[in-house]
Recover the amino acids of this structure.
């Protein structure tokens, strides 16, 4: 395949959300229904069956993989996939819709790089879940990881539960270096709402997602009231995350470009979410899924204490919480 050739993409998935990926990829690539052997790359869309096995088969065959099926693998599973793509191997990319929000683009310019223009004191994220709480929680964790250069040191979590015992909201607190704290809320009661608050010396920035884009408010410290002379309100348009992600992935495949790979970031997110699950275990041993492959090893994470509750694995050995 040359950069001028339209790549052949094997799309795995089912349901209306998977159809969005079909439409986004049409015209950019030749679609192959569920056949790794005949493809140049693989997209794991919503509703994909056995995505871990498909991803492993594709990566072992040297095919780039886009993971867009929502459910994040556990750290052991993701580490096994990451090793197959590391050191010049095929592209492994995880889809994060937040990357195509106008407010995210603004913040990455202000907060990114070795000498960021702004240094936040804390971040607060609200993700209104219309589907699974786990997906909303992990995306909020990923947003924090994408914006910050500091290393996560500890994570704790609590849940607000319904009468049947099922969680209705998850509240996660991640402690980073230099005393920075990120609070993530995933809530079924606030489906459709999304808000990010960044507190910094001298100003507070709030981003609210609306149907027209991200509404960005920058308020100097000490200002009060709904509006004030020094308050700035901007609206940044949001791109369609499925269309933009499909375009980026197809371009990377066509040009043999592995630079959009982001599995290292999502490996940290998987570790934080696994640790948060242990914190939610209410004192009982929390289930830990076994490694999916015979060559899976414990990923190289730093062990920390956190959450206030013990987590145990089948050997009975006490296991501290895992962080990035």
């Amino acid at each position: 395949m040359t950069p001028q050739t339209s790549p052949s993409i094997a799309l795995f998935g089912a349901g209306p959300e998977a159809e969005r990926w079909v439409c986004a990829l049409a015209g950019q690539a030749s679609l192959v229904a569920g056949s790794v052997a005949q493809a140049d790359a693989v997209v794991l869309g919503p509703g994909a069956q056995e995505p871990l096995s498909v991803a492993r088969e594709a990566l072992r065959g040297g095919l780039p993989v886009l993971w867009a099926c929502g459910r994040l693998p556990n750290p052991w599973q993701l580490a096994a996939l990451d090793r197959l793509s590391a050191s010049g191997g095929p592209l492994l990319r995880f889809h994060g819709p937040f990357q195509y929000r106008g407010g995210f683009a603004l913040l990455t310019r202000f907060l990114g790089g070795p000498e960021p223009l702004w240094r936040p004191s804390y971040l607060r994220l609200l993700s209104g879940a219309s589907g699974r709480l786990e997906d909303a929680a992990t995306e909020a964790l990923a947003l924090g990881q994408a914006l910050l250069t500091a290393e996560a040191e500890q994570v704790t979590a609590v849940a607000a539960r319904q009468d049947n015992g099922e969680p209705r909201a998850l509240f996660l607190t991640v402690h980073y270096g230099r005393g920075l704290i990120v609070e993530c809320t995933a809530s079924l009661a606030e489906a459709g709402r999304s808000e990010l608050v960044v507190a910094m010396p001298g100003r507070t920035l709030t981003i609210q997602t609306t149907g027209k884009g991200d509404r960005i408010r920058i308020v100097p410290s000490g200002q009060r009231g709904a509006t004030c002379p020094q308050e700035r309100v901007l609206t940044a348009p949001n791109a369609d995350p499925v269309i933009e992600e499909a375009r980026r992935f197809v371009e990377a495949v066509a040009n043999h470009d592995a630079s959009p790979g982001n599995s290292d970031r999502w490996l940290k997110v998987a570790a934080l979410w696994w640790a948060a699950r242990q914190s939610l275990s209410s004192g009982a041993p929390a289930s830990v899924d076994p490694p999916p492959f015979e060559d899976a090893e414990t990923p190289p994470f730093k062990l920390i204490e956190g959450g206030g509750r013990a987590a145990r694995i089948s050997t009975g050995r006490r296991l501290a919480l895992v962080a990035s």
Q: What stands out?
A: Residues 300-324 have pLDDT under 50 and may be disordered. Residues 268-323 form one domain.
